[in-house]
Design a protein that fits this description.
Mean pLDDT: 89
Low-confidence stretches: 1-8
Radius of gyration: 20 Å
CATH architecture of the largest domain: 2-Layer Sandwich
Largest sheet: 8 strands, mixed
Structural class: alpha+beta
CATH superfamily of the largest domain: archaeoglobus fulgidus dsm 4304 superfamily
Number of strands: 8
CATH class of the largest domain: Alpha Beta
Number of helices: 6
Length: 272
DNA sequence: GCGACAG
DNA sequence: ATCTTGTCGC
C-alpha cells in the first residue's frame, strides 16, 4: 500500500516536471514561429519558370536520422545534397551522435534539429559550394499541432528554405486517416495526385501526394520556411523517383548504411 | 476518462 | 525510429 502511494507520487512528480518541460518547449516553438515565412523567399527559380535574372535551382538537400538497434540513443544524422536536374549526389556528410532527448510527439525538433544544424553549420563554415538552396526534412513543417514542426524549426534556425515530408499523418485540426482517405478517394477519379489537406477550421496544412503509381500510401508535404506550398509541392514532385523524394530517400539509405557499418565494427571488436 | 500522437 | 519473410509484379 505505502509503496503504491509512494510510486504514484513519484510518477506524479515525473509527470509534472515533464509537463513543465513541454510547456517550455511550446513557448520556444511559439517564439520561433513569429519568424516563420510562408511564401517564396529566395533568389533562384524553378526550371521553365519566368523569373527573369535569377539562376535556376541547383542544390537540393535532404536530411534523415537513423538509430542503432543495439543502443537506441546512438544515432547517425545524414545530410545529402543532390543536383536538382540530375538527382545525382554532390555532397554527403554524417554526424554520429548520442541523443539524450526522447522523442515526444509534437516535439521532434528538440531531438533532431540540433543534429542537422550542426552538420549544416559545418558545411557553411567551410564555404562549401554545394550548400543547399532548399532542404527537405524527414518530418512535418506546419502540419503540426502548433503549426511549427521540425522543418519549420530548422528552417528558421538555419535561415534556409525548407520542406517537410511526412510518411505518416500527424493528426491535426480534424485531419485523420479516414478524412484524408475520403479526400483521396474523392479526387482519385479525377486523376489528381495532390490532395490539399484542409482541416476543420478551413486552414490548408499541406498536401497529400501519391508520389508513385505502385504505392497507394501518400506522403504528406507541408511548408517549412521561406517557401510556398505550391513551390514546395512542385519541387517534391520533380524529385520523386519512388514514393519518398530522392533527397530524403538517399539520406535515409546512406544513414542506415552508416549505422550498419558501425554496428558491424562493434561486433568485430567484441568477438576478439 | 480514453484514445491519438511526425520520427 | 526499429524488429522482420516472403511475395507479387514490371
Amino acid at each position: 500500500m505505502e509503496n503504491g502511494i509512494e510510486t504514484e507520487s513519484e510518477e506524479q512528480e515525473q509527470s509534472n516536471s515533464s509537463q513543465d518541460h513541454h510547456q517550455k518547449w511550446i513557448t520556444e516553438q511559439d517564439n520561433l514561429r513569429e519568424k516563420l515565412i510562408s511564401e517564396d523567399n529566395f533568389t533562384w527559380k524553378l526550371p521553365a519558370a519566368p523569373r527573369i535574372g535569377s539562376q535556376e535551382l541547383r542544390f537540393v538537400g535532404g536530411f534523415d536520422i537513423s538509430f542503432s538497434k543495439d543502443d537506441p540513443s546512438m544515432a547517425c544524422g545524414t545530410l545529402v545534397v543532390l543536383d536538382f536536374r540530375t538527382l545525382q549526389l554532390v555532397y554527403q556528410d554524417f554526424s554520429f551522435v548520442t541523443l539524450h532527448v526522447p522523442y515526444v510527439p509534437g516535439f521532434l525538433a528538440f531531438r533532431e534539429a540540433p543534429v542537422l544544424l550542426h552538420i549544416l553549420e559545418k558545411m557553411k563554415r567551410s564555404d562549401n559550394p554545394f550548400y543547399p538552396q532548399v532542404l527537405m526534412v524527414d518530418g512535418n513543417g506546419i502540419l503540426h499541432p502548433r503549426g511549427f514542426g521540425l522543418a519549420c524549426h530548422v528552417g528558421v534556425m538555419a535561415n534556409l528554405p525548407t520542406i517537410g515530408i511526412g510518411k505518416s499523418l500527424h493528426h491535426v485540426d480534424g485531419l485523420h486517416h479516414s478524412r484524408v482517405r475520403k479526400l483521396l478517394e474523392a479526387e482519385e477519379n479525377s486523376s489528381k495526385d495532390f490532395i490539399p489537406l484542409v482541416g476543420c477550421s478551413g486552414q490548408t496544412w499541406g498536401v497529400a501526394m501519391r508520389s508513385s503509381q505502385s504505392s497507394i500510401k501518400p506522403i504528406y508535404i507541408s511548408i517549412g520556411h521561406r517557401i510556398s506550398l505550391q513551390t514546395a509541392t512542385a519541387i517534391v514532385q520533380m524529385t520523386c523517383k519512388y514514393r519518398i523524394p530522392e533527397p530524403i530517400r538517399q539520406a535515409d539509405i546512406r544513414s542506415r548504411d552508416y549505422i550498419r557499418k558501425f554496428e558491424m565494427n562493434a561486433r568485430l571488436k567484441q568477438n576478439h
